[in-house]
Amino acid sequence: MHMALTKTIITEQIQTRLDLSRNTAYDVMEEFLEIIKSTIENGEDIMISGFGKFCVNEKSARKGRNPATDEEMTLPARRVVTFKCSGKLREMINDSPPPPRLCDASGCHSLFPMKLFITADIHGSLNTWLTIQALTEKTDVLVIAGDLFDTRYGNPCHPDFQPEAIRQNLKAADRAVYFVYGNCDDPSFFPGHANALTFSANGKTLFVHHGFPRVPIPSDADIVIQGHTHAWSLERNEGQIHLNPGPWPVPERDRPHTASWMTPVFPSGPWTRVPR
Questions:
Q1: Could you read off the pLDDT of 160-169 as tens digits, one per residue?
Q2: Domains with residue ranges and CATH for the chain
Q3: Residue 250: what pLDDT?
């Protein structure tokens, strides 16, 4: 069973990629769909370069058979819509490996996104950032709950404090990355993001924030992720799962270095704690 791309997910992707408000992203998505629908309704074809072509075809009336009574009947003329993907899209589909699947007692499920690697409070540590890159694959999704760069209070004399190297690496990222600012991040250093974001993965709605400054938590979020405390925690509160992945480079006092994996949710449970 593959995860369907819904209007909610499309809205969240537009919101994140274009740095728009949720309402504006929804309006963009609805307006685009309205253009598609009205064009097809008028009997016109739609050709999108690099994607494909929607064609409106006329089907003449024809004889058929009523499946309930087995009597002959005339099927009226009608219009049908077909889609033909572009050569470029066809190549992309066929060149990509089939998505990995997991089979359990309830059946077989697509593992896309394969895994989410959730971390926070990296504080400009290049060694930590490169370790995370080595641990994850291109099909994994990286979630960072704030204080990635620490350009407000970081120690520029420390050899491992290299926020500029992390920024350049992040700009060239070859995987999906969800990032929010923490209280130690200066937004001007890596503009275009926010203190909180919402996205969908593995059939769940995730809300990500740093924890300070405080932001309102939406009641419809399934999973709430935050950092800031430098301590790993996982609890359920009023139907929501709350996760703090803990830090890798700067644990609080004698607490361990940690991060978390989230894999698609099955009866056995989605969470794996990753010690450093």
A1: 999 999 999 9
A2: 7-95 (4.10.520.10), 110-275 (3.60.21.10)
A3: 55
Query: 3-state DSSP call for residue 103?
Result: strand
Residues of the chain with pLDDT under 50: 1-2, 100-111, 113, 253, 264-271, 276
Contact indicator for 132, 259 with CB cutoff of 8 Å: yes
Q: Which amino acid is at 211?
A: G
CB 243 within 8 A of CB 223: yes
Amino acid present at 135: L
Q: Which residue's entry shows tokens 């990296």?
A: 122
pTM: 0.57
Task: Find out whether 179 and 148 touch, Cβ atoms under 8 Å.
Answer: yes
Strands 46-48 and 52-59: antiparallel
Distances 63 to 58, 78, 211 between C-alpha atoms, Å: 16, 13, 66
Dihedral (Cα; 212, 218, 224, 227), 10-degree rounding: -10
